[in-house]
Amino acid sequence: MSSTPSPNNSVHSNRRSNPCINWIEEAIAKRHIKYYEYKNFNNIKEISTGTYGKIYRANWKNSNKYLSLKSYFVRDNSTIKEIIHEVKLQREVDFHNNVIRFYGITVLDQDNEDEQLQKYWVVMEYADGGTLQQYLKRKFYELTWNDKFSLAYQLASAVSYLHEEGIVHRDLNSTSIMVHQNTIKLADFGVSKRIKEASKRQINFGSFPYIDPKLFSNQINKNNPTKIYTLNERSDVYSVGVLLWEISSGIPPYDGIDDDNLHWKIFQGLRENPVPDTPISYIDLYNDCWDGEPENRPTMNQVVSRLNNIIVESYKTINNYQTDDFIINVQFKPEDELSIMVDRIVNLIFKLTNEGKEPKFRNKYILDYINIYNISLKELYSWLLNNQNNSTSIFLLGYFNYTGIGTSENRNNAFELFFNASKHNHVLAQYYIGLCYKCGYGTIKNQGLAFEYFKKCANKDFAAGQLNLGYLYEHGTDVKEDLKIAVEWYEKASINGNIIASYNLGLCYKNGIGINANNKKAFELFKKSAEGEYLNGITMLGYFYKNGIGTSTNKQEAFHLYQKASYLGDETAQYNLALMYENGIGIVKDIDQGIYWYKKSSENGFQKAKERLEEISKLSNRKNVNNNNMIIIKIFLSYLFLSLIYCIVHIF
Predict the structure, then answer these.
(1) Mind telling me which SUPFAM superfamilies this protein's record contains (predicted)?
(2) Model pLDDT, residue 223
């Protein structure tokens, strides 16, 4: 239990001349601020050191609950004013769930007044996840996109709340934000200020990757007071944009870059590149937030609204793959039996497979779905092992072995389980048996048997089976080639909603395979495939727009499509995007971005990208040699000139 110190026990009763100390003691005496006796804290442990002080973790008395103690590096009386400033702001806003709670103050007894100032410690809520930076480093690979969206939304909501209360934070970075029980907690209000309040408080330029680059213009305009830029609400928006990128990537901005001029490059427009698989709407949001011109940035209310829309769309996407009589409730964990959940997961796999969603995205949807219901993969896998009494459970256990969800990938086990489930006419099991025979997964490759299993699925109007049947007819491996029949099966699968079939049928129309060439028809099919998020479809649609095939030329749209597919990891799109950057097609010429995307494409195995990088390297070396030769020539000419001058002076 805390207590209020009496005047006789006041740790600063003989220092009344200091107004800062007076303010704190008066606030404690009037119980405006809760006072904690320092001696009642135990198990005190330092957990972090920042620019302005240290943070400790401690237990209060005999409680198992942790509290945080924040000390300050006090060098003069101005710092104690900052403590008071932070305490005042913290008390105003800490009832918001995403703001760290302020509990009170504790004081360490000291004889020297300077030491007294230094030993005022703030007592706060403890965040068990550490700073956001520490949390992401430790937990990033466990986070789904829904988890990342949630963190981003909490952050934006908290900053929006500050702005509504008339407060600008001014020092938002991944070390000034805490995480407790997977919940964002804003902290470090030491440099925050009232929006209308004039302030001369110093900014921590150690965190400049998060600071509004407009502030760096002050070094240019330092002799013109009318052009001095002050950090404001839109500066917080910039910082939030950088943090949204950090949440998506798991690493601090510009991590590992050692460049004394980095802040000027940021001022001139340098930004981090999106990580693969980042949703385009999320990329667009943080791009808008970190726009170089403050007036182009959204307000925090708009950021919150757009994040809310992203989250809603994310759940809608998953919801679209559920059975018609099932609606997701994202707020509550359902109490359904695991057997029902197994049925729903298999229904999701059915729709994702039938529509042609690529495996890496398919698995993401499945994991996100499982995560929404907070289902333990270990528990689910164990249940499946013990409940192999129907074809659905047998298939799902096979699928988990096939993809490595909840266990190590084991294609041999997967094949056996699919085979057992297929005996009960389970259409998904029959399809995956076909894939195993087609590719030699867990069994010997056998195109003839693959054909038979795909035919069973195709005759049941399963689009993925129709797609693969068309593929086998087109390529004629162990099956008599028949391009017209291949087109017929592609067309059936496309009508049934398979985006890969739409792409393959588009290629047939483009190249006149099994049907008369028709670029307009090909364009429409590639567009349909791209709208379904098939990477090859997106890239091919970009190619058609760039070259005006089957449609009007639109290089900006081509750039946008290549960019979208590049972010999602398509190596061909990355190469084409690099070409556009290198040559300034549909975008301002940027050789650095070109090289960046050539490298990405090369890393993904695209040979042309590797060759282009080698060519650029040779050209660069040749240019350097030429530059060196020019320097040598200039030095030689300078030497001749000086020699001539010397001769003239001494002869005449």
Answers:
(1) HCP-like, Protein kinase-like (PK-like)
(2) 62
Highest mean pLDDT among 119-128, 143-152, 541-550, 592-601: 541-550
DSSP codes, 35-91 = EE-GGGEEEEEEEEE-SS-EEEEEEETT-S-EEEEE-----SHHHHHHHHHHHHHHH
pLDDT band at 563 (very low <50, low <70, confident <90, very high): confident
Q: Delineate the domains of the chain, giving CATH numbers in brackets.
A: 19-125 (3.30.200.20), 132-315 (1.10.510.10), 328-360+370-445 (1.25.40)
End-to-end CA distance of the chain: 99
β-bridge mates for residue 178, sequence order: 131, 185
pTM: 0.57
By the 8 A CB rule, do 538 and 565 touch? yes
* The one-letter amino acid at 588: V
Helix (H, G, I), strand (E, B) or coil at 400: helix
Residue whose tokens read 């998060």: 210
Cα 506 from Cα 538, distance rounded (Å) = 12
Distance CA 188, CA 168 (A): 12
Residue 139 CB neighbour total at 10 angstroms: 14
Instruction: Look at the alpha carbons of 290, 295, 301, 306 in this order and tell me if their dihedral is positive or negative.
Output: negative
The segment with the largest mean pLDDT, out of 241-245, 292-296, 304-308, 638-642, is 241-245
Cα separation, 352 vs 372, in Å, equals 17
Query: In sequence order, what are the beta bridge partners of 122?
Result: 70, 105
Q: State phi, psi for 60 to the nearest 5 degrees.
A: -95, 120
Which structure tokens are listed for 305?
A: 């609204």
Q: How many residues are present in the chain?
A: 652
